[in-house]
């Protein structure tokens, strides 16, 4: 048994600090580990050597700033994580390892009217199919991240949602955990999009950001000091229900003139039906706009200005350094980003607006499922990764 404050307990704590830093970032040089953990370069070097000899981490040559360096990542054999993302019309599953490498990924259409039971049956089947296709031992799965389009409370129950109406009041976390017999971590899709972009995409390097997803609904994933902020009821980031016009259209939440009623696909696509038919989709609207269609450009610009009003409110309240636009609209580039910046400049406090960077997401439709992988990586403990590492400190170890 380790005595608190002893050399062996200090060593164990330092081992966990290094493993935690690598687990969250995917791969770091030893100099980056030292900066992240606050440990000395010599201590990091010794710990990395010990973890490498134990098979916990892999060390590969790389270059950093023109200099030769060594990249440290968790061993590909240390464990497997699975991401599951439910959307308005799709189910996407990804399998990755603790070194942040995606090993397999697949998506399939999902009937929006399907019940939670039907959806989770499809998820179970797709997860097992991908695991079998990669030849991975299912016993190596350390956890599953699950994304759903709606608010999640602390017990894992999905709140009211008009996007997957048959799911309201269910506990998809517990149901999927029972099906797969592994721990499941659940969050809403906007939070997972924020995590995905933070770890793999356009949010890398930002400690404070907002990920805005515009699809069938409108939501924001908020990152504060590097951590997702969910609020006590799990409803933080419901930017789609900021009121823009008290006399505007009735929203699904019961209020009038919410941001969502001016920006979500279900409200804006009908504006273009007379010109492009009732089967118009958001990706096609974006393609037409990029090709010069005046009507589509106008609708996208209007959506951008409305989003910018909501982003300005976020700036005034939280002062994020970066806003990442996700979903199909991100593909419109400056056609939507420029109007967002224009509204932010008009409505946000000048000092907050000057510090804000508005960028398109880098991951597209994969942001949420990659965020589901990142959720597992962020929630898992580090002790299990050190089971084979001796508890006693070797001479010279910090």
Features:
398 residues; alpha/beta; 5-stranded mixed beta sheet
Q: Give the neighbour order of strands across the main sheet.
A: 6-5-4-7-8
The general outline is globular
Strand residue content: 15-25%
Order of helices and strands: HEHHEEEEEHEHEHEEEHHHHHEHHEH
Structure description:
Helix 6 crosses helix 14. This protein has about 400 residues and is an alpha/beta fold. The protein has a five-stranded mixed beta sheet with strand order 6-5-4-7-8, sandwiched between helices. A five-stranded mixed beta sheet has the order 11-10-9-12-13, with helices on both faces. It is globular, with a radius of gyration of 23 Å. It has helices spanning about 5-25, 30-35, 40-55, 115-135, 170-180, 190-200, 260-265, 265-270, 275, 280-290, 295-320, 335-345, 350-355, 365-380, and strands at about 30, 55-65, 65-75, 80-85, 90-95, 100-110, 140-150, 185-190, 210-215, 220-225, 225-230, 320-325, 355-360. The chain starts with 6 loop residues before the first helix and ends in a 19-residue tail after the last helix. About 40% of the residues lie in helices and about 20% in strands.
Topology, element by element:
Blueprint: H1 7-25, E1 28-29, H2 30-37, H3 41-54, E2 57-64, E3 67-74, E4 80-86, E5 90-97, E6 102-109, H4 116-134, E7 141-148, H5 172-180, E8 184-188, H6 189-200, E9 209-214, E10 218-224, E11 227-229, H7 260-263, H8 265-268, H9 273-276, H10 282-290, H11 294-318, E12 322-326, H12 334-347, H13 350-355, E13 357-360, H14 367-379
Parallel strand pairs: 4-7, 7-8, 9-12, 12-13
Antiparallel strand pairs: 1-3, 2-3, 4-5, 5-6, 9-10, 10-11
């Amino acid at each position: 048994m380790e005595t608190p404050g002893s050399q062996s307990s200090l060593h164990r704590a330092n081992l966990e600090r290094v493993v935690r830093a690598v687990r969250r970032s995917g791969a770091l040089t030893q100099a980056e580990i030292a900066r992240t953990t606050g440990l000395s370069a010599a201590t990091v070097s010794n710990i990395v050597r010990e973890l490498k000899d134990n098979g916990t981490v892999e060390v590969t040559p790389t270059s950093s700033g023109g200099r030769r360096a060594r990249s440290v990542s968790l061993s590909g054999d240390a464990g497997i994580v699975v991401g599951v993302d439910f959307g308005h019309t799709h189910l996407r599953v990804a399998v990755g390892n603790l070194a942040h490498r995606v090993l397999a990924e697949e998506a399939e259409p999902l009937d929006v009217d399907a019940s939670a039971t039907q959806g989770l049956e499809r998820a179970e089947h797709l997860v097992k199919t991908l695991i079998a296709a990669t030849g991975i031992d299912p016993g190596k799965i350390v956890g599953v991240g699950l994304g759903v389009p709606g608010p999640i409370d602390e017990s894992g129950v999905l709140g009211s949602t008009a996007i997957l109406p048959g799911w309201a009041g269910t506990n998809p976390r517990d149901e999927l955990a029972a099906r797969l017999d592994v721990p499941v971590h659940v969050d809403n899709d906007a939070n997972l999009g924020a995590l995905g972009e933070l770890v793999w995409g356009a949010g890398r390097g930002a400690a404070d950001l907002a990920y805005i997803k515009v699809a069938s609904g409108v939501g924001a994933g908020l990152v504060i000091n590097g951590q997702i902020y969910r609020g006590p009821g799990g409803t933080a980031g419901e930017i789609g229900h900021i009121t823009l016009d008290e006399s505007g259209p009735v929203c699904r939440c019961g209020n009038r003139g919410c941001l969502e009623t001016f920006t979500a696909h279900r409200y804006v696509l009908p504006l273009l039906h007379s010109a492009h038919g009732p089967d118009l989709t958001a990706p096609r609207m974006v393609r037409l706009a990029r090709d010069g269609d005046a009507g589509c450009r106008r609708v996208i610009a209007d959506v951008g200005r409305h989003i910018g009003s909501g982003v300005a409110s976020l700036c005034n309240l939280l002062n994020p350094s970066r806003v990442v636009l996700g979903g199909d609209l991100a593909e419109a580039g400056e056609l939507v980003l420029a109007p967002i910046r224009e509204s932010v400049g008009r409505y946000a406090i000048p000092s907050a607006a000057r510090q804000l960077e508005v960028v398109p997401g880098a991951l597209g439709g994969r942001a949420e499922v990659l965020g589901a992988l990142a959720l597992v990586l962020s929630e898992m403990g580090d002790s299990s990764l050190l089971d084979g590492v001796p508890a006693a400190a070797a001479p010279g170890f910090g």
